[in-house]
């Protein structure tokens, strides 16, 4: 809504109202009094003293009555005016109580273009935003519950099978393996949720240190050895020696998540290329895989919470990795983007300033 113009503002309304009341009262009082004086007083100048005094008293009584009448008219005008100002305030107060109860489906009618109208429009905007946040929160809670429910159901099912049935050695080790994997998944999910909530609530403070980015990336590859050796993946690593100032612990999460994705979405015996180069003032990291790539329709959504593209490969993930990556990179004043072709492969690119002015994203 537009800002109210001076003439339609409450200031102007009050000013006009008081001028009007002032004018009505004055003109009633003085107009009537002067009329009486003009009509009767001057005609009776020839009266004697007693008659003159009686005439003065009559004029005084009439003047008093006119004063009373004009005060009554003024009071009525003020009451009507105040009611029209208070009414929208009462409507807003009633609506605020509804919002406090959690009812966001409420809209107060904007009836004027003054400050009150502006306040009402702002109130409506606020409830709309609150409603959106509420929908997001409910979505989030239902996604989290869903993500927890699947592994818990599977753990429970296989634990019961082990408890209630005589099993062969092979079955036993297969079922316990599933239970271990699903527990691992639950543990990663809860630690990722915790990380996200810390990043969201800005509970993480900058722990800026100077460290070698190439070493950090090499370390990330080593940490993930179990995953890539199982898939027999080859690495082509080309890292320039670059030191960077930033939060070492948080940035390690970025490389772990991106390399983990590259491994997960690569084919057996695939290859992954990791490059680190200086690009102007920026350190540029490129992680390229030749795996399944990202489908056109998924490209806009991969940074959304809980979004998982290829369901068969993303079984062991929760769709939180890239959300964490983006948050950390943006907090480090960098940016992350990707190029991908379905069926051919994907390159994730991270650009970071070498001295990262850490801020809350
Ligand atoms: N290198 C990649 N190649 C192909 N698809 C990818 C790649 N990286 C991410 N994606 C797509 O983006 C989705 C989201 O990735 P993200 O890392 O956030 O979740 P995830 O890997 O499925 O689970 P999590 O990281 O929580 O374990 C993936 O499910 C996948 O569809
Ligand atoms: Mg991931």
From TrEMBL:
Any one Gene Ontology MF annotation carried by this entry is:
ATP binding
What keyword terms does UniProt attach to this protein? ATP-binding, Cell membrane, Kinase, Membrane, Nucleotide-binding, Phosphoprotein, Transferase, Transmembrane, Transmembrane helix, Two-component regulatory system, Virulence
Quote the subcellular location field of this record: Cell membrane
GO CC terms, sorted: plasma membrane
Quick check: keyword Chloroplast in the entry? no
Q: Specify the enzyme's EC class, one word.
A: transferase
Q: Where is the Histidine kinase domain?
A: 143-356
Keyword Transmembrane helix part of the UniProt annotation: yes
Source organism's superkingdom?
Bacteria
- What residue intervals traverse the membrane? 12-42, 62-86
Q: What is its main location?
A: membrane
Record's Pfam families? HAMP, HATPase_c, HisKA
Catalytic activity reported: ATP + protein L-histidine = ADP + protein N-phospho-L-histidine
Q: How does it sit in the membrane?
A: Multi-pass membrane protein
Any coiled-coil regions, as ranges = none
Record EC number: 2.7.13.3
Domain (HAMP) ranges = 83-135
Known role: Member of the two-component regulatory system HssS/HssR involved in intracellular heme homeostasis and tempering of staphylococcal virulence. HssS functions as a heme sensor histidine kinase which is autophosphorylated at a histidine residue and transfers its phosphate group to an aspartate residue of HssR. HssR/HssS activates the expression of hrtAB, an efflux pump, in response to extracellular heme, hemin, hemoglobin or blood.
The name this protein carries in UniProt is Heme sensor protein HssS
């Amino acid at each position: 809504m537009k800002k109210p113009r001076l003439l339609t503002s409450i200031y102007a309304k009050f000013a006009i109202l008081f001028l009007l009341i002032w004018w009505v009262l004055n003109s009633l009082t003085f107009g009537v009094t002067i009329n009486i004086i003009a009509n009767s007083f001057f005609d009776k100048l020839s009266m004697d003293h007693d008659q003159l005094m009686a005439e003065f008293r009559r004029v005084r009584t009439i003047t008093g009555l006119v004063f009373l009448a004009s005060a009554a008219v003024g009071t009525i005008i003020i009451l009507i005016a105040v009611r029209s100002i208070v009414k929208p305030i009462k409507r807003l107060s009633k609506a605020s109580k509804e919002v406090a109860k959690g009812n966001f489906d409420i809209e107060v009618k904007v009836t004027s273009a003054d400050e009150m109208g502006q306040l009402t429009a702002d109130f409506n905007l606020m409830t709309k935003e609150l409603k959106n946040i509420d929908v997001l929160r409910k979505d989030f809670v239902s996604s989290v519950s869903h993500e927890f429910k699947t592994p818990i159901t599977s753990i429970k099912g296989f634990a019961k099978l082990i408890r209630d049935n005589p099993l062969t050695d092979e079955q036993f080790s297969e079922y316990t393996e599933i239970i271990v994997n699903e527990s691992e998944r639950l543990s990663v999910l809860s630690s990722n949720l915790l990380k996200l909530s810390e990043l969201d609530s800005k509970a993480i403070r900058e722990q800026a240190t100077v460290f070698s980015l190439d070493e950090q990336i090499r370390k990330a590859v080593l940490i993930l050895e179990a995953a890539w050796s199982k898939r027999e993946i080859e690495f082509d690593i080309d890292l320039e020696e670059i030191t960077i100032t930033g939060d070492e612990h948080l940035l390690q999460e970025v490389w772990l998540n991106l390399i983990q994705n590259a491994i997960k979405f690569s084919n057996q015996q695939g290859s992954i290329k990791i490059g680190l180069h200086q690009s102007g003032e920026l350190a540029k990291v490129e992680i390229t895989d030749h795996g399944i790539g990202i489908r056109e329709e998924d490209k806009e959504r991969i940074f959304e919470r809980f979004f998982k593209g290829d369901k068969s490969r993303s079984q062991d993930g929760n769709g939180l990795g890239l959300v964490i990556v983006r948050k950390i990179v943006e907090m480090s004043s960098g940016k992350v983007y990707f190029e991908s072709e379905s069926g051919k492969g994907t390159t994730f690119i991270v650009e970071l300033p070498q001295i990262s002015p850490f801020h809350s994203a």
